[in-house]
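Protein modeling request. Please complete all fields; requests missing the sequence field cannot be processed.
Requester role: graduate student
Desired output: 3D structure, token encoding
Chains: 1
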Amino acid sequence: MSLVHKIALTLIKNIGSRQAKKLLLAFGDAEAVFSAKKNMLLKIEGIGEKIASSILNTDALVRAEKQLAFIEKHKIEVLFYTDANYPKRLRNCYDAPVLLYFRGKVNFNQRRVVSIVGTRNATPYGKELCKKLIETLLPYNVLIISGLAYGIDVTAHKESLNCQIPTVGVLGHGLDRIYPLAHADVARSMVENGGLLTEFLPGTKPDKENFPKRNRIIAGLCDVLVVVEASSKGGALITADIANSYSRDVYAFPGRTNDEYSAGCNFLIKTNRAGLINHPKDLVYYLAWEEESTKKREVQVQLPLNLTEIEIRIVEVLKNNPMGVDELSSAANLLQSKLAMALLTLEMQGIVITLPGKRYQLT
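Delivered output (363 residues):
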């Protein structure tokens, strides 16, 4: 399936993520959708005359070709809904985007992912709580997700970088810009240890209606969402509600009853939308997490009995480090043609996953 067809599928007028997934399920891939006849399209539930006409008469492929040059020039990774490296937690959400654009170096499917959200008007109390939370999470091998906004979001990113914890900012615009511009330096550092993720094409402005969409991705990527500080209205509460709808764990720090920027947290706790945490260690206790050694551990993998000699050799080489194809080919002493087939088989068995940059790692 070509990248142009994947991008083009998201550019067809009147088609959202749910309709796109129905089409993919019916036709197998994006390229087949564009070559389908009208009578076949109309057989798909929810695809009426209007959407069928949009598919048949669209200039989406032309527009996708234009986007491709920018994507390749800036080394943007495209994560498609059916790809092995698409974030698996997000894929399980009914309204997950069909396509994501990513710059950075991170494994979205690592064992523990925490999203941290809060007010743009963070107080010293909220910033200190956020700092302590990040420091407490250091021994647990987590990925931190937030939205690169003012206040709690950027504090979470900065403290993660200080602790050398990978952190991803989910954006409400395209990857051709950073908003707010004041966070450009932080964003550049995040690309080296984490990254920037969006469902919006390059050229998309940070319009107000994009941010609720951004919030659902923050909620869908994580195992647990923590609201550090929030007023009675705003994106943090919306994100918490979305996380609840996805059956994610949600926790919040309480504040004094007369504090404007604790009102949202207190409300979430009072209405049982979030569990109460007085101290960051409470979060670890509730989740029953155990510390992971900062030293490298030999990976113990339960292997199926029917692996070939080549597949076993690949697993042995990947035990301690992710590798790219060239490095893996050399280390395992395998031709790339044989390596590619074996990697595909191992991925289908859930033994290996693909990381950004076409690197491979044991699950």
